[in-house]
């Protein structure tokens, strides 16, 4: 990654989004990018809190400017995440169809690599079970639950979410369930889809609760 983006500023964030939008291929970011973002947002919130404690016409204007900038940062982060998410899903789709895999893992952060692997695995399994199964005449038809013997019916639906404690402050993000989650502060407790919990646990951002 270019040295100019080692330090997170509003301008570098905007430039990262601009590059991600203008380029077809996934752009490289630092492995600790999201940790830097969390620290950057904390600094902005500390500045806002300090400004709010002062009372004057000038600080009121500064408070409005800081709030606006924080809102814009959230918007940039959301769009940047979604642009990268779409590219990763597209890459997984292409590689699922191809015999020669195009590897962009060197410019993905660890959480994105895991997301890519999970998406590609789903696509590969679906292709093998459906398309290849139809072509080879080996596709298995799933029995309807009412046609199954009583002892084989599923009594309890598998758990799809987990309750967690947030260990590090995080901006709002679009999850693998295509829903917006957050923003969260350290110490918050919430319920998230298992896939997201697994990704955040790997990055030590959450702790599972009983």
Explain what the structure shows.
The protein is mainly alpha-helical and 210 residues long. It folds into 2 domains: 3-136, Methane Monooxygenase Hydroxylase, Chain G, domain 1, CATH 1.20.58.1030; 148-208, Ribosomal Protein L9, domain 1 (3-Layer(aba) Sandwich). 53% of the residues lie in helices and 9% in strands. It is built from 5 helices and 5 strands. It has helices at residues 10-22, 33-53, 57-97, 110-136, 194-202; strands spanning 161-166, 173-174, 180-181, 189-193, 206-208. The strands form 2 sheets. Strands 4-1-5 form a 3-stranded antiparallel β-sheet. It has a two-stranded antiparallel ribbon with strand order 2-3. β2 (173-174) and β3 form a beta hairpin. α1 (10-22) runs parallel beside α3 and α2 (33-53) runs antiparallel to α3 (57-97). The chain is elongated, with a radius of gyration of 22 Å. Residues 1-5 and 152-157 have low confidence and may be disordered.
Q: What would a concise description of this structure say?
A:
The protein has 210 residues and is mainly α. The protein contains 5 helices and 5 strands, in the order ααααββββαβ.
